[in-house]
Amino acid sequence: MADGSKARIAVLGASGYTGSELVRLLLRHPGAELVALTADRKAGQAMADVFPQFAPFSLPRLVTIEEVDFSGVDLVFCALPHATTQDVIKTVFDKAPKVKVVDLSADFRLHDPGMYEKWYGHPHAALDLQKEAAFGLVEIYRDAIRKARLVANPGCHTTTAILPVVPLLEAGAIDPDTIVIDSKTGMSGAGRSAKEAMLFSEVSEGIHAYSVGSHRHMGELDQEYSKAAGRPVAPVFVPHLVPMNRGIYATLYVRTAGAKPEDLHRLLADYYRGEPFVHVLPFGQVPQSRHVRGSNMVMMGVVADRVSGRAILVSTTDNLVKGASGQAVQNMNLVLGFPETMGLEQIALMP
Amino acid sequence: MADGSKARIAVLGASGYTGSELVRLLLRHPGAELVALTADRKAGQAMADVFPQFAPFSLPRLVTIEEVDFSGVDLVFCALPHATTQDVIKTVFDKAPKVKVVDLSADFRLHDPGMYEKWYGHPHAALDLQKEAAFGLVEIYRDAIRKARLVANPGCHTTTAILPVVPLLEAGAIDPDTIVIDSKTGMSGAGRSAKEAMLFSEVSEGIHAYSVGSHRHMGELDQEYSKAAGRPVAPVFVPHLVPMNRGIYATLYVRTAGAKPEDLHRLLADYYRGEPFVHVLPFGQVPQSRHVRGSNMVMMGVVADRVSGRAILVSTTDNLVKGASGQAVQNMNLVLGFPETMGLEQIALMP
Amino acid sequence: MADGSKARIAVLGASGYTGSELVRLLLRHPGAELVALTADRKAGQAMADVFPQFAPFSLPRLVTIEEVDFSGVDLVFCALPHATTQDVIKTVFDKAPKVKVVDLSADFRLHDPGMYEKWYGHPHAALDLQKEAAFGLVEIYRDAIRKARLVANPGCHTTTAILPVVPLLEAGAIDPDTIVIDSKTGMSGAGRSAKEAMLFSEVSEGIHAYSVGSHRHMGELDQEYSKAAGRPVAPVFVPHLVPMNRGIYATLYVRTAGAKPEDLHRLLADYYRGEPFVHVLPFGQVPQSRHVRGSNMVMMGVVADRVSGRAILVSTTDNLVKGASGQAVQNMNLVLGFPETMGLEQIALMP
Amino acid sequence: MADGSKARIAVLGASGYTGSELVRLLLRHPGAELVALTADRKAGQAMADVFPQFAPFSLPRLVTIEEVDFSGVDLVFCALPHATTQDVIKTVFDKAPKVKVVDLSADFRLHDPGMYEKWYGHPHAALDLQKEAAFGLVEIYRDAIRKARLVANPGCHTTTAILPVVPLLEAGAIDPDTIVIDSKTGMSGAGRSAKEAMLFSEVSEGIHAYSVGSHRHMGELDQEYSKAAGRPVAPVFVPHLVPMNRGIYATLYVRTAGAKPEDLHRLLADYYRGEPFVHVLPFGQVPQSRHVRGSNMVMMGVVADRVSGRAILVSTTDNLVKGASGQAVQNMNLVLGFPETMGLEQIALMP
Description:
Four copies of one chain form a homotetramer. By secondary structure, the first copy, chain A, is α/β, with parallel strands linked by helices. Chain A folds into two domains: about 5-130, NAD(P)-binding Rossmann-like Domain (Rossmann fold, 3-Layer(aba) Sandwich), CATH 3.40.50; about 160-320, Dihydrodipicolinate Reductase, domain 2 (2-Layer Sandwich). The first copy, chain A, has helices spanning about 15-25, 45-50, 85-95, 115-120, 125-130, 140-145, 155-160, 165-170, 200-205, 220-230, 260-270, 320-335, and strands spanning about 5-10, 30-40, 60-65, 75-80, 100-105, 135, 150, 180-185, 210, 235-240, 250-255, 280, 300-305, 310-315. Chain A has a seven-stranded parallel sheet.
């Protein structure tokens, strides 16, 4: 904070995986102090009861959202399920209009109320806030985020697929109509709800596609791709579940518009030069998801296909860090005036 | 066999994963008797020393290829590395011209010597045999295989990617120039050689693409797709390594040529009706790789994309069974006159 | 069956993992015909909706238990949760006194009503049946099982820990008071109920002990160890969850009573000579759980510790096969007069 | 450093997993500067070629040990294989007698030359140094380590098994003759050498014991247990390989000597009160290995067995952090006068 004191932080929804990842990062953030953690169904418990890895640390007990005094809070992370979030944030701002909010749900990512209604099947409940929200992809919207009161942290699939494509669409270097995104995610992206389909025995030792042709996060892709291209873009996007805890790995198939694959690589290298959390590999190399695991890094690569005019992009993030809570802290750093990398210096764990 | 006796079988290269899978299947095949197992570097050892799961069973000791008396053998499975294979099989036929051979390497899959040289970087050493070999994809070449002396068992990625596409190309239902194949494989497909890159700690808890833009098995895809389309086809193909033992999972992105996605589904359902080892799911459903694990089954599905004219095909096999040793036994059954499903009835293990 | 017809089989609780494993085995059993599958909450669905690996096969639809006509059934497998089972089986026998039952729950494994009440916290609801039930550990109680109407299939931890110890206690070769059993199980043993603690992200990439000092299956261990020793035995037993689908791996620490470790090995080798599903490794060798995965085999080994008088036994099974459904089919084979190994010939999958 | 400058650090053996883990930790250590990284067979390569997760960071190129100028180095981490280490460290001290060394191999852990020779099969090549070396288990030998020139960082199994037992033996609270240690380790503990037995397909989906009755690290256990007990102790110790990357999980079976299990718990809680890296759970609770993954924490628990006089201890660490490189940095912090927790604040990643 400007006055040198620590920022007072609340995490709403601390009992899920993005919530616990926020706590993990914020406990070691030199400028942040955790003053409230909420978890409706687990209110009253200690955080260590819910996530024993926190047993050695001192943390506020879990409470309900109603119990939080937002007047004493500088910034709220909202890691709640879709739809309930809009009401909660509206209420938070009603109680404390000057608080900052970084929202990890999908509720404020789509600027167009019509698009929101199309993808989510109901009208948005906080249209003013929807208009106000900054899209929290720092490398693209850094300036807007700095001034924002409400930041909509983008999804993990979308963060990973937007970053390598936007510079190419902006430059007119690829055909907007033939983009294919084959995305693979680790299991922690599916959350901590007890569902049969997420049991170890259901998802280990195999892979499968899900939400084929209909995944809601395509709305975010369309929005950002279209904005970059200056005209409507609707890529093919298919997510897959992979038996690993963390990681998003997007393989993107593109057709160049005149440009050569080397040109695509140069465009990306130029665009992200100096970015602390984006690393563009040498032309012809692709990353592995494990090379960013546990870190806030995006790694990407460009490879020429054997047929001229076709190229393959690969982009990878840790879905809980750059794909969720790490990016949220990066947004917090901008919003509160901390150095952008503060508390996010962790290097990937491999193995 | 026609006379009711058991077929005498040799497995060359029994110390690798496709070799051990052949032994697993053939030990329970009512018409087969294992009379020779070879493993050059492990000759002299018992099979149970190399694969302890066989300890309870009686099996021939491992010997070198030179020690095998091929005159007493009805059929040879060749599970040796690429390139050495051509010389070995030439020698086998020199010694025993009437023996049948099912080859699991890539050596005899490409009919065009020029294509072989292009993908493998050296001229083929057994051109006559290359001409003679049947491509061992039973569902497409059943009749030719029945009459063949030498069957070239197709690769795991290619088996999985050819079966859902050939009927559509033959029918002119999809655009041959925009096919994208994003294929994912389990680790057993990488074989049993001690390589740093295949250590548990290198490949668990992550995913990555490999041989991007340059995988050799594209030669097989080109050959079969082109034949089906009646003109040259060169799809985009990117394989990925997934932290699981078994499974190939191919997500195929196609553009329809006039047809609707439902038409693609109907074409596949018709083409494979009655096939014992191909199961086409209802329109709109996709399989999971674990639903075929341990079985000789291919499962496939067709889904419409949200944009008209685009469809997503998913196809999955167990890389060691239908993608290698199971299909090899299926080929043996045809070549030796056994019922096609004999010894291949195992149902997928899930979990 | 004696008259050559197929045995008509019902599986109660077909939507769990032991249920689906029974279906997998019985679909390929030459003497069995599946005539009824029940699943209370999923009644009305096709088995393929619940377990897509069965999509290629023809199976009865799932029904409630009330809908089953037991008069047309020869044998019932009961794969239901503890406690409900006793009432269900009582009702089944009331309706069809001549039907045979193989029960996979813990309800009929303890012969002593007092012990049942101690471990399960309530009186047994079917005392007569409890008295009548045979303990379904074939290698020890083969003759009793042949004559039984009701067989209590033992648990997976207990099957794995009883087989290597009973012969040693019977021979007086080890000290009954210092047996330590450190048992490790794969996740499928925890069943298919949607529980947070069984999510992939909760149990992959780690290991932990559970029910330390209080696991209910110790009742079975005590019963069988005490019977073998001829006096009360209460071993230490701690189960652990390992991030794998299948497998029980018990490491047993014993002190010899005069005997040498080699003597323990000889006792086991003699005891299990000729058993189709028990393999005793050479002295000094231990098995790996993957060497029995997917098979009905038990593998065990004996190693001398560095200090005289101490030995280590290792025993391993596939918890869903020899530890549950495979052993249940083995019991069915005895009860119905089929060859004991029928339908259980599958060899372990490795990898 | 006392003068406020950064300590100049060399890592010998940077291409293995403990080496890369040292680099990961030291890159973020405020007091350390990496000035030399060695890897004999990979000399000349960039660290990012060997471990791509370091691509975004600036690091010295890999060189041979001979190329390092030790006169400009304050502390050397030695992460080399057993046996070669003694010669290397002797040479390092010859060249630069004032440098400090933290050795991660087993070479200097045993104080008794006879014991070394017994376990390793050959005489020690640097007897003076062996005598001088401090045993680097900080919580027990903190004062000696502070003054040491050479610290022998203990093994991962031993760190995990020594910490919960030494306080109990010192207090005479448990029987030294009946300790059983069933230890489980993740795969990264087996190192990065390309060995068939460590391939993903060999070690995933299963568990197995190894070095049963003969693991060399028993020498360290004997030494430390005997010292604590004041008389010779030789526990039973069996290590197991578990399909996970990181983690040591030791289940220890003890018999109390008069004491109650609650007393054991109180002894441990008292002994480790205030320790930053040891967390004793409430009586009756046990940790999971994933609750310390990626952190320098040891978590331990004590549970009473159902039979009086028997107790179960569970202790867990991350084998690459507290079990190797994290503890090595903790030792460096003591030796160089940094705060003990500096650079080791990372909280466990779960999931």
